[in-house]
Amino acid sequence: MDWNDLRHFLALAQTGQLTRAGTRLGVDATTVGRRVRRLEVTLQQTLFEQAREGQVLTEAGEQLLVLAEQVEQAMHRIQDAHPGDGLAGTIRLSVSEGFGTWIVAHRLMAFLKLHPRVQVDLVASSGFLNPSRREADIAVLLARPRSGPLISRKLADYALGIYAARSYLESVPRMPSDRSELSEHPLIGYIPDFIYAPELNYLDEISPGLRPKIRSSSINAQYRLATAGAGIAILPCFIGGGDSRLTRLLPELSIRRSFWLVTHQDTRQLARIQAFGAWLAELAHLERSRLLGLESEPPA
């Protein structure tokens, strides 16, 4: 049996889709399908069935998955067994677009300089990969998972505030003096159908019935709209607070949320996962003031 065939099987079993498995492995979906079919021929068993949502494991596939994950964990332990050589391997990190772009990205090179043999896949998007299905090694989520074979702990609290560009405020007769006047201005926010976590549905916490006029699934797009003077936006303070073009309105109105660090219980003991988790915790501590909106300028 070819280990590379087993690796492609494992990626497909954990992601459930040929395209996602190919993305994880850095190959196209056709290659994943070909490798899996070759493994099925070798074992003379059908490992997947086609379903509406993607590829679903058969009973034989479920049995092989248990063995394949044991092999994968053994490979990881072998990689981690030589500390003198430093950490090695891939870490797939799933984070929200804002946290990944504004907190992790500009500091990530510091970790990679310490561990040059580690490769980090930074998946910073509007949505999260599923650590329960091993789509990610580490995930920074907006809520603590309630089920699954996961280990989670609070990483940090963060605050959101109400921001508008100075250019916008100069174009209107007067800025809002309380929350009841926010509805008189064009609000920038999420598209309701694309809110991927309930923690992002916070307009009603500001004032019941508030609805955005300009909507985007991307927090970075919302930030750009705000700096362009399109209207008033609710932004994480670590995004809005560092831009001199933006003014924070009604500072007494602050929304508090949390980030949770989540790993799979089967991989949490891997040296590179532990090291990266510790680095993220230290990063959150260093960025505490920005996360909570206690400083106005981003770090150098």
Question: What is the compact description of this entry?
Answer:
With 300 residues, the chain is of the alpha/beta class. The chain has helices at residues 3-15, 18-25, 29-43, 59-79, 97-104, 108-114, 166-171, 203-206, 219-227, 237-240, 271-286, 288-291, and strands at 48-51, 54-57, 89-96, 118-125, 138-141, 150-165, 187-189, 214-215, 232-236, 246-249, 255-264. Strand 1 and strand 2 (54-57) form a beta hairpin.
Task: Describe the model.
The protein is built from 12 helices and 11 strands. With 300 residues, it is of the alpha/beta class. It folds into 3 domains: 77 residues, Winged helix-like DNA-binding domain superfamily/Winged helix DNA-binding domain (Arc Repressor Mutant, subunit A); 105 residues, D-Maltodextrin-Binding Protein, domain 2 (3-Layer(aba) Sandwich), CATH 3.40.190; 99 residues, 3-Layer(aba) Sandwich (D-Maltodextrin-Binding Protein, domain 2). The strands form 2 sheets. Strands 3, 4, 5, 6, 7, 8, 9, 10 and 11 form a 9-stranded mixed sheet that branches. A two-stranded antiparallel sheet has the order 1-2. Helix 1 crosses helix 2 and helix 2 crosses helix 3. It is elongated. The C terminus is likely disordered.
Number of strands: 11
What proportion strand? 15-25%
H and E order: HHHEEHEHHEEEHEHEHEHEEHH
Q: What would you call the shape?
A: elongated
How many distinct helices?
12
Q: Average pLDDT value?
A: 88
Give the name of the CATH architecture of the largest domain: 3-Layer(aba) Sandwich
CATH superfamily of the largest domain: Periplasmic binding protein-like II
- CATH topology descriptor of the largest domain: D-Maltodextrin-Binding Protein, domain 2
Percent helix, as a range, is 25-40%
Distance between the termini: 51 Å
Radius of gyration: 22 Å
Low-pLDDT sequence parts:
296-300
SSE class: alpha/beta
CATH domain class name of the largest domain: Alpha Beta
- Count of folded domains: 3
* Biggest sheet character: 9 strands, mixed
